[in-house]
Sequence to fold (246 residues):
Amino acid sequence: MAKKLAAGNWKMNGTGADLAQVSALIAAHPAPKCDILICPPATLLSRMSDAAKGSAVKTGGQDCHADASGAHTGDISALMLADTGASHVILGHSERRADHGETDAQVRAKALAAQAAGLIAVICVGETEAQRDAGDTLSVIASQLAGSLPDSCTAVNTVIAYEPVWAIGTGRVPTTDQIAQVHDLMRDALTARFGDADMTLLYGGSVKPDNAAEIFAVANVDGALVGGASLKAADFSTIIAALDAS
Ligand code: 13P
Fold:
């Protein structure tokens, strides 16, 4: 069985005052069945990791450089993320692929660096609306998985997040059949390549308190990568409870 994970991606949101949301989440979920992860902006990572120490809440970065150190102004290495107490790092999010032109090959190199630093790589894939309309969704996902994952991936060091680009921050969500189709393809492709059927597969894109239970009932959905609804403890808590009940 894949380990269930409720992951929050705070993106470029949050300052010190928002650490109170994490304290509230820790208090609300002293012993969850699923793993809970929050990926705040890098400026909050050390403070959040300290605040979450000894609790059920894990922390992660939103990106890392492929090198361990060096002359890369403004970048952060996987080792540095691990040094803050982080356990995970999101890689290849569609916003980084779009805003920074990240390629599958770059995501693969970052995933190798993350795994070498002892971090769990949360690798994101997802089709654009134009690709879905053209009927290319499954081939796009298969190709992103093939290109973005190094051969070293296992169920222990890797989580995959399927995030249709058109569903992110839009309030639009694929049908449960559409989610199932992609997650079934991912499970088959990952099992065939890595011989490991237990990799955690997240769905992301407009997951909210009122649609989480329906999404978690879909086969091969092991949790969610949540943007906007992870910023407020009350909303994220409802999503965590839905995953625990699934
Ligand atoms: P929203 O939940 O705000 O749609 O964001 C999803 C996402 O991009 C998580 O990484």
Notes: The pocket of 1,3-dihydroxyacetonephosphate is lined by residues 9, 93, 163, 168-169, 204-207, 225-229 (CB under 6 Å). The two ends are 13 Å apart (CA to CA). DSSP finds ten helices and eight strands in the chain. The mean pLDDT is 97.
